[in-house]
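Quick one, tokens below. Sequence please?
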């Protein structure tokens, strides 16, 4: 490392020594986890990353014997952090958390090693070797890197304690929602089986290629899954035209097209004549009921994006993939579909995630047939 880089790194993590933390100076678990959620939203707007460091104290529980040891740990942390950093219980009396806020973007990788050395050194100075060995340290950087190298779960769950809490609060409603998904998808597949057979034959006879189109999509928490549709395009087509349009759409640079003013490719040369009808009527979506049965999707939720769409996302757009399971229909589908700008679509998805309930799902499901039959915003 060059000397100038060392100076910059030292300046980025330099601390102003302050008195050891008193018992009341460490935030409670609830307060600290709320601060993590708040800092995520600040980072989404500012573009400045933050680092969450977690110290699992292991067997160092606050008993009469170990109370002083824990106080020594907190005092060491106070000497290793800045006034602007936040310290609190990530898990009460078990895991201590520190948020190092507003890290310089160009230093976010190298700062991990620097903070590890700084904190480890401070702990070694005040703990015995046996006590130090009982502490494990982990680092969690926001925003995370969502790339092709981590296709299963690219999000770091440690950065989202509020989402875990929300899932626990909605455990019963999620069970009812899953039961509704299984029952609804099974019944619709059974009732629509003749329609599925006719569409499959029409797709097969109209153009070369398989009846079903399988595509990698990004589901909840960034996990990839195989998304099913009736094939509506010619085989071996080039996706560059769609990739470029998606980038323009997400960046807010796409133009409204057609008499309906939609934000969508309205004359895509890759689509077959039968496929155009299937897309207009949304019949190409029917095989996704199998995705619902498997548990990869829900009847109601945000639409699952393509991996190259996620690559173009702003950080705040990712929340639509974290706060709800993807669905076949949703608020976007019953509120204008492709006539809605991308940012407004994301806001609708986040609105659904905040308010999701069985009653809201039922209302959306009841509004979906009229939206499909009207073809409003569908291409």
């Amino acid at each position: 490392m060059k000397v100038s880089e060392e100076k910059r790194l030292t300046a980025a993590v330099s601390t102003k020594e302050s008195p050891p933390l008193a018992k009341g100076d460490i935030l409670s678990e609830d307060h600290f986890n709320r601060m993590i959620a708040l800092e995520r939203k600040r980072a989404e707007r500012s573009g400045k990353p933050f680092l969450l460091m977690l110290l699992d104290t292991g067997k160092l529980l606050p008993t009469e014997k170990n109370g002083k040891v824990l106080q020594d740990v907190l005092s060491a942390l106070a000497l290793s952090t800045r006034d602007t950093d936040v310290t609190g219980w990530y898990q009460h009396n078990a895991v201590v958390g520190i948020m190092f806020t507003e890290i310089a973007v160009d230093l976010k990788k190298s700062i991990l090693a620097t903070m590890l050395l700084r904190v480890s050194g401070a702990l070694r100075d005040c703990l015995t070797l046996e006590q130090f060995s009982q502490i494990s340290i982990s680092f969690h950087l926001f925003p995370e890197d969502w790339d092709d190298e981590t296709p299963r779960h690219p999000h770091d769950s440690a950065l989202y304690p509020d989402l875990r809490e929300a899932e626990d609060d909605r455990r019963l409603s999620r069970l009812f929602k899953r039961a509704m998904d299984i029952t609804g998808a099974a019944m619709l597949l059974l009732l629509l089986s003749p329609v599925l057979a006719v569409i499959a034959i029409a797709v097969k006879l109209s153009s070369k290629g398989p009846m079903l189109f399988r595509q990698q999509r990004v589901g909840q928490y960034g996990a990839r899954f195989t998304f099913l549709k009736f094939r509506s395009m010619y085989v071996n087509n080039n996706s560059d035209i769609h990739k470029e349009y998606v980038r323009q759409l997400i960046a807010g640079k796409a133009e409204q097209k057609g008499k309906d003013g939609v934000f969508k490719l309205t004359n895509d040369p890759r689509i077959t004549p039968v496929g155009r009808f299937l897309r207009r009527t949304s019949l190409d979506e029917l095989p996704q009921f199998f995705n619902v049965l498997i548990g990869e999707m829900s009847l109601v939720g945000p639409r699952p994006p393509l991996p190259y769409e996620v690559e173009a996302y702003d950080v705040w757009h990712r929340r639509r993939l974290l706060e709800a399971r993807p669905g076949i229909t949703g608020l976007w589908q019953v509120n204008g579909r492709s006539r809605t700008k991308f940012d407004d679509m994301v806001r609708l998805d986040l609105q659904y995630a905040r308010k999701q309930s069985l009653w809201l799902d039922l209302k959306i499901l009841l509004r979906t047939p009229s939206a499909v039959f009207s073809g409003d915003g569908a291409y």
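The two ends are 54 Å apart (CA to CA). The chain is about 45% helix and 10% strand.
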